Amino acid sequence: MVLSRLQKLVNYLRPHWRNVVFGMIALLVVNGLGVYIPLLIRDSIDNLRQSFTFQEILGVVILLVVLASISWGIRMPSRLWIFGIGRDVEFSIKQGIFEHLLTLEPAYFSRNTSGDLINRATSDVDNVRRLVGFALLSLANTIFAYGLTLPVMLTINVRLSLLAVAVYPLMLIAVQVFSKKLQIQQLQIQEKLSDISQLIQEDMSGISLIKIYAQEENEKRAFAEKNSQLLRSNLELAKTRNFLFPLIEGLSYISLLMLLAFGSSAITQGIISIGDFIALLILVERLVFPTAILGFTITAYQQGEVSVDRVEAIFKTESKIKSSVNSIALPISSIEGKIIAQNLHYTYPGEEKPAIKDINFVIEPGETIAVVGSIGSGKTTLANSLTRLLDIDQEQLFIDGYDVTELDLNNLRNIIAYVPQDSFLFSTTILNNLRYGDPLKEQFETEISAKQAEIHKEILNFPQQYETVVGERGITLSGGQRQRTALARALLMDSPVLVLDDALSSVDNKTATNILKSLSQGKQRTVFFISHQLSAAAQTDRIFVMDHGKIVQMGTHQQLVKQPGLYQRLWKQHQLAETVS
Ligand SMILES: Nc1ncnc2c1ncn2[C@@H]1O[C@H](COP(=O)(O)OP(=O)(O)OP(=O)(O)O)[C@@H](O)[C@H]1O
Fold first, then answer.
1. Domain boundary residue, one of 316, 349, 382
2. What is its main location (predicted)?
3. What is the pLDDT of residue 372?
4. Which residue from 110, 111, 377 has its CB within 8 A of the most atoms of ligand 1, so it is best to mutate?
5. 228/338 same-domain check
6. How far apart (Å, rounded) are the C-alpha atoms in residues 495 and 499?
7. Nearest to residue 498, comparing CAs of 359, 364, 362, 337?
8. H or E element: which one contains 201?
């Protein structure tokens, strides 16, 4: 586990090895100068006792100023180099997470909440940045400081040096004792943060529902509960830190006191010179910061290693739905649009019963098929199987004789344009939304699709017409307008197969019927029209009736209304509803 984490860290750092090497060399030089300066001061003080010329003092002062300036001049870029590595790593991980998430199937996003994913891409990546920036810098600094300072102190006086650092192991024990606690508390904070992000995100998406059910007070209470849990966790962490770090600092002062107490008597006994004593004081003082910072480094390391695991968990998740190694890409213009299903079945992960089963059909190129049926009968599952949004088995679905699992995924999704149930639009202009699938489409082409989807005239009535921004800071579209915009977006792709999943549910029956009729005009296009709107479905070439995951009836409207069965019942209910309304 530890080794694999270290391997991960090495992988993060590998592309930046030059900066790591330069940064380390610079730190080494700075620490070397930090040890040399006290020795220079020692020699000057001891020389002062024998001879004293102003020229000599001036020379030493100038040398000290020059060395201190060099040290400062090197320390600055070394910090920038190493902190810069953290920023570069942060950039690549964020980019990598986003790109990887785009490869994952929709099912992944129903298993993982967006709040948690956002948290991993922000707070956790931030912790990794601190680990490879701050923690690397501090750890290297501590190692160099000890590695160079301690041997020099020992050459001055072994007993005094050991006395001065005798309390330092206590510091490490204290850090060790508290480190586990800090790690658990940090994890709790990250979980609470995820909960809060999730709640905000859900409540903002479901704001209408909250208002309809007048649940503002309940939601406020739910938020206050999560917020106070976060506050408690933060305070617990602060308490642990506030106990640990002053303890480390206090222990380092004890070491100074020991040196003062025993060092002064060593001078009077003539064991060390005054210069040695002052050099020891400066040198041991040099160890205070690296030792104290070791506590922070350990915390940064603990936070970072938890975060490395959380970030890596995203990268480890492989998409189950991807193009096979020998995938085929068919030229779109050559596709006729014949679709065959052979014993198609699909069971959602974790479920026992298949959502669809024993599905068999042959759809001829250019046919418009309505798929109707009761709620939860498997219509969306069938649509998602066609577009491979679900991980279906091989040899079940074929387009023009090609197994869909063997087609290149991008190619398949260009062959089939899909309008899902929720007509999601981005917060950008209508034009950008319409040409989302192909930003290079010309304005006149988007207008043709918009006319076909019967939304063009309404767009012309918007303040900036096609340049009107929809969503957050722009115009809010009605349900029907959103659906027709989403349909126009799909039509613009000019795909030979079109799947509409209840995509006209908010559009009146007459308009829906008109749109449906126009879909195959002037172009051969196979259309899957999943709908509860039976009057529109009745206009299609054939109707598939689904119940409990199976196609239980198949035929034209005229054939099916005459057959006793589900379709006849649904049609009667539909007619009754029409009469009543
Ligand atoms: N992600 C999922 N995980 C587990 N079961 C699911 C999932 N999505 C759908 N189901 C189940 O699969 C069955 C078919 O659902 P599907 O959404 O395909 O029905 P539908 O006919 O499209 O329904 P509707 O008319 O309400 O849109 C239902 O029993 C549903 O509960």
1. 316
2. membrane
3. 92
4. 377
5. no
6. 10
7. 337
8. helix 168-205
> CA 74, CA 53: separation in Å to the nearest integer?
32
Residue 226 pLDDT:
93
Q: Which two tokens stand for residue 411?
A: 């190619």
CA torsion angle 539 542 546 550 (round to 10):
-170
- What is the C-alpha to C-alpha distance for residues 402 and 202, in angstroms, rounded to an integer? 41
Q: Which residue's structure tokens are 């060593």? A: 266
Residues of the chain with pLDDT under 50: none
Q: Hey, how many other C-beta atoms are within 10 angstroms of the C-beta on 341?
A: 21
Helix axes of 443-452 and 509-519: crossing angle, nearest 10 degrees: 130
Using the mean position of ligand 1's atoms as its centre, give its distance from the Cα of residue 381 in Å.
6
Question: Which residues touch 467 (CB under 8 Å, ≥6 apart)?
Answer: 429, 430, 431
Sheet of 368-373: strand order equals: 416-419, 497-501, 526-530, 368-373, 542-547, 550-555
Q: Which residue minimizes the CA distance to atom 5 of ligand 1?
A: 348
**Is residue 73 a contact partner of residue 57, using CB atoms and an 8 Å limit?**
no
Q: State the Cα–Cα distance between residues 311 and 121, nearest whole angstrom.
A: 7
Amino acid at 363: I
The structural domain count of the chain equals 2
- Cα 483 to Cα 263, 468, 487, 515: the distances in Å are 84, 17, 6, 12
Quote the radius of gyration of the chain (alpha carbons, Å).
Answer: 36
Ligand 1 near 110 CB (within 6 A): yes
User: In this structure, are 437 and 571 located in the same domain?
Assistant: yes
442 class by beta-carbon count within 10 Å (0-12 exposed, 13-18 middle, 19+ buried): exposed
> Of all atoms in ligand 1, which is nearest to the CA of residue 546?
21
Q: Given strand 397-399, what is the order of strands in its sheet? A: 356-363, 339-346, 397-399, 402-403
Containing structural domain, residue 302:
16-316
Mutational pocket test of ligand 1: of 108, 379, 504, the residue with most ligand atoms within 8 Å of the beta carbon? 379
**Do 349 and 242 belong to one domain?**
no
Question: Pairing relation of β-strands 497-501 and 397-399?
Answer: unpaired
Same domain, yes or no: 294 and 394? no
